[in-house]
Amino acid sequence: MPLTAETPLEQGLILQITPLKVARVYQIWGMDGSSIVLKWEIGMDKRFMKEGSELIGQIDSLAKPVPLRGGERHELMRWCKDKMEWISRARRLQNSPNHDKRLYDAAQQVEILANDPKQHGFKLRLLRVSALDEAIQAFDERGESKPLRSIAKVLLAHDGLEQLGRVVALDLVLGNMDRFDPQLRKPNQVKLGSKTLSLKAVANVANLMIVTGGERWSITALDSFDNFSKWNKDTGKAFSSLSNAIEVSPLTFLVQNSLRERYAENIIDDLQALFAPSKRSLFPLFGRKERDRLLWGMIDGGIQTRERLKTYIRGRVQNKGATIHDRWAETLELLGKLHH
User: Fold this and answer.
1) CA distance 273 to 143
2) Residue 249 has what pLDDT?
3) pLDDT in tens, 327-340
4) Confidence band (pLDDT; 50, 70, 90) for 302?
5) 283 phi/psi in degrees, rounded to 5
6) What's the CATH number for 129-335?
7) Angle of helix 257-274 relative to helix 160-174, nearest 10 degrees?
8) Angle 132-134-138 (CA atoms, 0-180°, nearest 5)?
9) Residues contacting 304, CB < 8 A, separation 6+
10) Any idea where the domains of the chain sit in the sequence?
């Protein structure tokens, strides 16, 4: 059976676990050569991750995270213990204390993470992505323009900026300020190659990514959870009730026309700066028309998340007798103001 993000993890399906470049992110290999990504977040609210994954899937099905269940954590721990024991025996037989060190360390780390209730794991599809920061550095340092042109092409293609707008809206609904931030207190000074940029709304250039595999390249909503967001951690409470919250709910920048337009303008200005990594801009492409496309996508993304949230809550109430907590009630009320 191939490994997929939706398939329950079982010990017998796992061939190997290898670490990826980012901390607490691993690739799980199946017996048939298939593979998925396993990522861990600390301090996230379990209910928020489950609900948020539904909204992410609505905007970008390829990027939908699937939270690990208790049984899957147990299967992971069993596999990791067996793997460490097997490598330990091989080390003794070969008198080689560093035999398969990378695989041993990965198994040890995953076992520790799976056994820690504060760590929340989720499965993702393995996607080939291109990040904007790496594309800019490739152009600045080695003169490689193809990665940067590819991202610009995806943005300017049919439904490209619109999809970026949906991701912007999703981030505001989820309280993710680790890609864009409408309330930067001062310009975000970013050094890319030999150039330092002052960005108005882009908080993390590395989280602007496109998926480059498959038939159609597209903007991705990967990394939509921000575990530093107090809004996420206080899932059940209305944003307006949080004493330690920033002064304005992020959703305000989606539902109020003037704030939404200013936010979109700032994002477009940042994109223009990011796609001009030399004295002469290669991409003088982002203007009023592009802003309007981004705005349409922001509204569409807000409407889509609203309707998905309604459906999800309706199912929870009908099937499990759940109640609508203040956080989502407030969110639905605000998103109700959006119309095309």
Assistant:
1) 18
2) 82
3) 788 889 999 999 98
4) very high
5) -135, 75
6) 1.10.1070
7) 120
8) 115
9) 58, 59, 166
10) 11-125, 129-335
Phi, psi of 184 (to 5 degrees): -60, 125
Is the pLDDT assigned to residue 228 strictly greater than 80? Answer: no
Contacts of 58 (CB under 8 A, 6+ apart): 304, 305, 308
Question: Which of 180, 190, 199, 165 shows the shortest CA–CA distance to 273?
Answer: 199
pLDDT in tens, 76-119: 999 999 999 999 999 999 988 889 999 999 999 999 999 999 99
Contact 115, 74 (CB under 8 A): no
| Phi, then psi, of 195 in degrees rounded to 5 | -115, 140
pLDDT-based confidence at residue 49 (cuts at 50, 70, 90)? confident
Q: What percent of the chain is predicted at pLDDT more than 90? A: 66
Whose CA is closest to 177, among 229, 215, 130? 229
Q: Which two tokens stand for residue 33?
A: 């050569």
Task: In whole angstroms, give the CA distance from residue 253 to residue 199.
Answer: 17
196 strand-pairing partners: 191
Report d(CA 99, CA 96) in Å as an integer. Answer: 5
